């Protein structure tokens, strides 16, 4: 018998005879041609999330090969296994709807298989959160590897990348500034290679956040998918996974309160996707931590946006990589970080920063004295319209609209929006507030990224680029605008958003952190009696959709299932100042 991790002896299903169970296990896997020497080693599982429908994971075969090489260099046995794969564009009704399913798949496969450690390979928006949620619950040594960003493309001399430019070109097409021929041409330019979106969308955000959490190797968040750097990180990740198994470095020792604080800090300084907040709340919940939105907002006020990435800035992920990546950002934030937190390397974050490459002049990661935006990218709002909170990505909003009072133009759900938004007779002006409800975690279900409500066509044609928009949904991290999101409780759960009527006045004040409906309380109570929307919404009768709608929690809790949260309460993140 070997010393150290149990290898194939791990996790034996006991038929009342564990010797026989091992005998069977070995007999079957030897069908793949393994020798006893191979099988009597530390086993590293590699989670394969490749799929023909997931170009963001299109480099999966190369990454798996490199991870395997790294595992074998360290004397371990690599064994890959699949879980579901979730791509943003191929996930009906939404990728968020499938995230929890992927997390359950990941958790249970890690539990089920005799793996001493696991390398999680993910990339596209929901996959890294799903893997971290699952691995956090499974509790074995785990290390995250991301697939890396796609290369940017070029359209008629202009550099383009998915998917901020997808949105801006489509917006120009809607405004009839570009024609059918050009929109068809740009369609083939936006995605330059396999890999994840090249801006500070959710995939890039979660890659950087994972590095800040300490759950992936330092420097590994930013190399593009098709580069030698990416492949080298894959090899190093495999090697490190073997060592983590031998050291018994389980994921709960890395995903601590201090680590989550570091991750929230990086989310803010990155001007990262608002989805990152939902995902971090979900991962933290798996370890018993609850997101405290007020403390997060306080953190936001003292954390400037330093990374100049689209959509809030000008650059792409490959530029961030060349500028020094996440370590460069962490060095700039060092005094605001918990540097005693352990990382997957077995060293603390502070020790890693001591080893980080020395800063050199570059334009992507700004210094604290010359930030992209003076406060954090995300502000938390409250008010009678969002008793449990709402958020706005202030760094990507129009400063003129951040203090605004306007007339509500209400859409009941995405179908209603699609039917009427481009109607020439729609009663709407640029000063109005567009309200979309019924797109929360339960409402849609799966909280679609429909919070990026398009500017009504007749206004877009007049050159209107931004309006205040309010919804209980999410928006893509690649989108920008004065957009209030994640209104909680959502309309379908009986939140006051359900009570807004056309013509009501809504007040947004980012300065006061307020989202307010100028309607008296007694009038709102009377409206609630008249039409309780939550009761009217049809509930699915079967399948995963029923499980989802019956158990999904609200955005501030991460839209996880209530039964997947940890049963231990470890308190709030961020912790008390
Ligand atoms: Fe996969 Fe953007 S669609 S990362
Ligand atoms: Mg996205």
TrEMBL record:
**What NCBIfam families does the entry give?**
PRK06131.1
For this UniProt record, the keywords arranged alphabetically read as follows: 2Fe-2S, Amino-acid biosynthesis, Branched-chain amino acid biosynthesis, Iron, Iron-sulfur, Lyase, Metal-binding
Is Iron-sulfur included in the keywords of this UniProt record?
yes
Q: What positions does the domain Dihydroxy-acid/6-phosphogluconate dehydratase C-terminal occupy?
A: 363-559
Instruction: Please indicate which superkingdom the organism of origin belongs to.
Output: Bacteria
Which residues are in the Dihydroxy-acid/6-phosphogluconate dehydratase N-terminal domain? 41-351
Q: Which family does it belong to?
A: Belongs to the IlvD/Edd family.
Q: Which residues form a coiled coil?
A: none
Name-wise, this protein is Dihydroxy-acid dehydratase
């Amino acid at each position: 018998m070997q010393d150290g991790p149990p290898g194939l002896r791990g996790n034996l299903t006991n038929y009342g005879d564990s010797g026989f169970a091992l005998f069977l296990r070995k007999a079957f896997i030897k069908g793949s041609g393994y020798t006893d020497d191979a099988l009597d080693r530390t086993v590293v599982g590699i989670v394969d999330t490749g799929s023909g429908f997931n170009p963001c994971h299109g480099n999966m075969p190369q990454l798996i090969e490199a991870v395997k090489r790294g595992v074998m260099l360290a004397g371990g046995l690599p064994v890959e296994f699949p879980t579901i794969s979730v791509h943003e564009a191929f996930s009906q009704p939404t990728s968020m709807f499938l995230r929890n399913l992927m997390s359950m798949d990941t958790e249970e496969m890690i539990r089920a298989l005799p793996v001493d450690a696991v390398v999680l390979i993910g990339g596209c928006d929901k996959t890294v959160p799903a893997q971290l949620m699952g691995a956090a619950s499974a509790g074995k040594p785990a290390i995250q590897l991301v697939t890396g960003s796609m290369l940017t493309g070029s359209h008629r001399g202009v550099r383009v990348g998915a998917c901020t430019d997808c949105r801006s070109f489509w917006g120009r097409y809607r405004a009839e500034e570009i024609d059918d021929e050009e929109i068809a041409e740009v369609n083939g330019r936006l995605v330059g290679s396999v890999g994840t979106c090249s801006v500070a969308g959710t995939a890039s955000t979660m890659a950087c956040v994972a590095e800040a959490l300490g759950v992936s190797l330092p420097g590994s968040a930013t190399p593009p998918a098709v580069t030698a750097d990416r492949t080298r990180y894959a090899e190093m990740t495999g090697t490190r996974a073997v060592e983590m198994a031998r050291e018994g470095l389980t994921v709960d020792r890395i995903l601590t309160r201090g680590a989550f604080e570091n991750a929230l800090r990086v989310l803010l300084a990155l001007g990262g996707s608002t989805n990152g907040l939902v995902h971090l709340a979900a991962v933290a919940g798996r370890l018993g931590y609850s997101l405290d939105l007020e403390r997060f907002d306080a953190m936001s006020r003292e954390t400037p946006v330093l990374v100049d990435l689209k959509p809030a800035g000008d650059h792409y992920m490959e530029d961030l990589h060349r500028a020094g990546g996440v370590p460069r950002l962490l060095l700039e934030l060092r005094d605001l970080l918990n540097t005693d937190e352990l990382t997957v390397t077995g060293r603390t974050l502070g020790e890693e920063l001591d080893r980080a490459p020395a800063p050199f002049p570059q334009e992507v990661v700004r210094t604290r004295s010359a930030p992209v935006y003076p406060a954090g990218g995300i502000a938390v709002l409250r008010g009678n319209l969002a008793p449990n909170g709402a958020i706005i990505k202030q760094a990507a909003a129009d400063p003129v609209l951040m203090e605004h009072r306007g007339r509500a133009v209400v859409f009941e759900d995405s179908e209603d929006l699609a039917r009427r938004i481009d109607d020439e007779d729609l009663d709407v002006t640029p000063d109005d507030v567009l309200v979309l409800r019924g797109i929360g975690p339960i409402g849609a279900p799966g909280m679609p990224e429909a919070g990026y409500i398009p500017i009504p066509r007749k206004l877009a044609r007049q050159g209107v680029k931004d309006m205040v928009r309010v919804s209980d949904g999410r928006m893509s991290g690649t989108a920008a605008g004065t957009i209030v999101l994640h209104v909680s409780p959502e309309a379908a759960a009986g939140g006051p958003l359900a009570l807004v009527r056309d013509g009501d006045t809504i007040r947004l004040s980012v300065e006061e952190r307020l989202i307010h409906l100028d309607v008296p309380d007694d009038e709102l109570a009377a409206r609630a009696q008249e039409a309780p929307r939550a009761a009217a919404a049809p509930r699915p009768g079967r399948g995963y959709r029923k499980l989802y709608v019956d158990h999904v929690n609200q955005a501030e809790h991460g839209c996880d299932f209530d039964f997947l949260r940890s049963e231990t309460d470890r308190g709030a993140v961020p912790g008390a100042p």
